[in-house]
């Protein structure tokens, strides 16, 4: 069956003040054959009338309109109304009825990514109050539920994924439809099923945080963009059983592009975690359980062994994830100094900059703000890159910031199958810096002037 390339799923309640601009922002997209499913959730302010008029005016023949006779919520609307229509489309983009698309090419960019074989694609956003979103890339080798929430607006997914999601993933344990954290309820089952993810680093979506009907406004928590009910529902969503992967070659029913299977996840020894907690009690004291569960004790123990023999070291952390937070506590326990630098456009972020070496290139956070500061070690988190993860390029770019007597670099979140090739590249360029695999999943590369780290004393 020939499918249309993209369906925009739009739903909301009492959005009369926003709905015409919402629909107009979709209609002005450069993708001329996008369709819209608009679900009015029993509005009583005339949203349904305004939406139908706007759809007929700007998207004639390219829309479906549904009105719920009673309030059901976004989770219900996705699981019932969207599920019924999705099989006729290649991909689905989620746009709330009070929000806007602000990049007129973004739907075309999404379609191009799906044509290239991706299964889940998202962008960044800003709010109508000038707040910058903090979306970013996910680590393909860490389960999505163990990573920070970096894939909100604009979120999209291959339509075939929805058919594999049970209704229960959109519901409370007692069978009622979730009425908050619905973006998470939609996103995580899609992310579970595949690692063909792509983050588009464009601010393509305007989130209307000023809507008085938003959960955070109703709860009086306008600054957090969250509410107690949203946080409760988020915990319920994250506790759902992850859906099985479908992007292995033998199970791939979405498209013909073969996938490289992700490496099997190796479990860290509980004794390593215990030794680490004993050496650095601040980890248990300062970090929440959700962050602790996302940590790789083997990688952190590797760090602690080095830090304990290089007390007072200055460590630069590029990117931001659970390990970056834990590393800061390890550095502090070793009487050192840690500095974190995250790439992005928002306040407190360093702008992305192009870096290249030989025929390789990528994008890293700009280092200009560091001035002449020198560091003993650098940790690059999986989201330290805005491009290909190219350790050779990063090594060249970071060299001016490193003390050259015994430098250490740790590249986290690499594909284990690439480590030998990357280590060989580095050895050919800098023979005095041997490289080795680290971490429970052997997905980190440690490059350091010394041999294997000495045994810790703490």
From TrEMBL:
<dbReference type="Pfam" id="PF00535">
    <property type="entry name" value="Glycos_transf_2"/>
</dbReference>
<comment type="similarity">
    <text>Belongs to the glycosyltransferase 2 family.</text>
</comment>
<keyword id="KW-0328">Glycosyltransferase</keyword>
<protein>
    <submittedName>
        <fullName>Glycosyltransferase family 2 protein</fullName>
    </submittedName>
</protein>
<dbReference type="InterPro" id="IPR001173">
    <property type="entry name" value="Glyco_trans_2-like"/>
</dbReference>
<keyword id="KW-0808">Transferase</keyword>
<dbReference type="InterPro" id="IPR050834">
    <property type="entry name" value="Glycosyltransf_2"/>
</dbReference>
<dbReference type="GO" id="GO:0016757">
    <property type="term" value="F:glycosyltransferase activity"/>
</dbReference>
<dbReference type="InterPro" id="IPR029044">
    <property type="entry name" value="Nucleotide-diphossugar_trans"/>
</dbReference>
<feature type="domain" description="Glycosyltransferase 2-like">
    <location>
        <begin position="13"/>
        <end position="149"/>
    </location>
</feature>
């Amino acid at each position: 069956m020939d499918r249309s390339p993209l369906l925009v799923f739009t739903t909301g309640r009492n959005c009369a003040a926003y709905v015409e601009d919402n629909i107009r922002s979709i209609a002005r997209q450069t993708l001329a054959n996008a369709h819209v499913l608009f679900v009015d959730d029993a509005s009583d302010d005339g949203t349904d009338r305004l939406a139908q008029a706007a759809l007929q005016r700007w998207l004639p023949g390219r829309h479906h309109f549904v009105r719920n006779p009673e309030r059901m919520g976004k989770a219900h609307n996705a699981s019932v109304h969207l599920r019924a229509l999705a099989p006729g489309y290649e991909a689905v983009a989620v746009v709330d009825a009070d929000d806007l698309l602000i990049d007129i090419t973004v739907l075309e960019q999404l379609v191009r990514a799906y044509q290239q074989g991706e299964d889940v694609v998202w962008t960044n956003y800003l709010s109508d109050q000038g707040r910058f979103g903090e979306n970013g890339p996910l680590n393909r080798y860490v389960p999505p539920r163990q990573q920070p929430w970096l894939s909100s607006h604009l979120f999209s997914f291959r339509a075939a994924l929805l058919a594999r999601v049970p209704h229960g993933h959109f519901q409370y344990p007692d069978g009622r439809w979730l009425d908050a954290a619905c973006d998470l309820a939609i996103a995580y089952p899609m992310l579970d099923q595949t690692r063909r993810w792509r983050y588009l680093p464009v601010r393509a979506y305007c989130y209307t945080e000023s809507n008085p009907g938003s959960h955070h406004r109703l709860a009086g928590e306008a600054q957090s963009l969250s509410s107690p009910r949203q946080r409760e529902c988020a915990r319920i969503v994250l506790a759902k059983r992850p859906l099985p992967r479908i992007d292995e070659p033998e199970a791939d029913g979405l498209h013909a592009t073969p996938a490289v299977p992700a490496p099997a996840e190796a479990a860290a020894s509980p004794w390593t975690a215990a030794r680490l907690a004993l050496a650095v009690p601040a980890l248990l004291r300062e970090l929440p359980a959700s962050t602790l569960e996302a940590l790789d004790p083997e990688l952190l123990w590797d760090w602690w062994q080095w830090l304990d023999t290089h007390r007072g070291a200055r460590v630069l952390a590029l990117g931001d994830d659970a390990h970056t937070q834990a590393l800061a506590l390890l550095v502090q326990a070793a009487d050192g100094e840690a500095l974190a630098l995250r790439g992005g456009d928002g306040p407190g972020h360093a702008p992305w900059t192009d870096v290249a070496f030989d025929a390789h290139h990528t994008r890293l956070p700009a280092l200009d703000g560091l001035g002449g500061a020198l560091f003993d070690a650098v940790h690059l988190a999986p989201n330290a890159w805005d491009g290909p993860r190219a350790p050779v390029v990063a090594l060249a770019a970071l060299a001016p910031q490193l003390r050259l007597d015994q430098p250490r670099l740790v590249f986290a979140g690499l594909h284990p199958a690439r480590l030998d090739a990357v280590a060989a590249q580095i050895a050919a360029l800098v023979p005095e810096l041997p490289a080795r695999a680290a971490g429970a999943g052997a997905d980190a590369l440690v490059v350091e002037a010394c041999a294997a780290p000495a045994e810790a004393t703490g």
